[in-house]
Design brief:
305 residues, alpha+beta, Jelly Rolls, five-stranded antiparallel sheet
Length: 305
Amino acid sequence: MERPQILWVSRADALPGLEVKKHIHPYFHMFYIAAGGCRMVTGDAVHLLHPGHCLLVPSGQEHAYFNDSDSPIDFLEIKFSLPHSALNTQLVNKGVQVSDSPLVGLLFEQILNEYSALGSLADESAAAYLSALLYALDETERAQKQQFRYVDTSSCTELTQRVVQYLEEHYAEDLSLDQLSAALDYNKSYLCVAFKKDTHLTILDCLNTIRIRRAAELLVYSEHSLAQVAEMCGFTSASNFNRVFLKYVGITPGQCRRAYPANVLSGPGVTDAPTHTDAFMYSVLARKTITPEMIQQLDLSESKE
């Protein structure tokens, strides 16, 4: 991420009745509300900001703010630029961003503290904190798009995303379709049909893939025993773990632990074609989300709802 150039950092009180009329800056303007409330107008949109809210106004965006309450507003602000930067274009295109992430607030406070203590000497370190703050804003936006760790649901329906979210949160438990349907308040048969129609997979296929991918991570990077890995990933027994892992990955858990990450991160040799197992393990170790298409390539012939 390109490093921003900080132009102004301050903390101030906005007294009751304050009105800052619409105006435009050739730089970015970021606000953080520490106490009180603020009405911010950006273009035709109105944002009611409360303590813990951060708002980023891109350069060239018309904005105004008001204190309509009977109490002062304690707010922090940063003005910065990203000259000749791809990030500048990206942030301008995204438009106004609002976040209530605690991390954003902590970073805002840290930038203010740096400037309060060091003045202009804080430029380099404060810019680094601001880069992290902008990343945290982007992280908040990505989280709102319902992206999950083990299965890519970006093109799936909201119901499928809710199913995957529940499976990723509860894969270590002894899950049943009855439990899932009760948690989501859907008929079990309808849930299975809708999920299969959307992903071409059964819910059990998806659950097993989540469990297997988590198990592969633990086998390679942790010191847990095979029995512990099986239990941590929701398998009812070591034999069940071995059978399912072999079916999905092509090798046993013990073989996986001995074989990887020997060649996976650098890929197969120049003259070697990547094997089915290598492809799966690379997706795990390189932190690549498993898509429904990847799951379909696995041997799922024995899966049942």
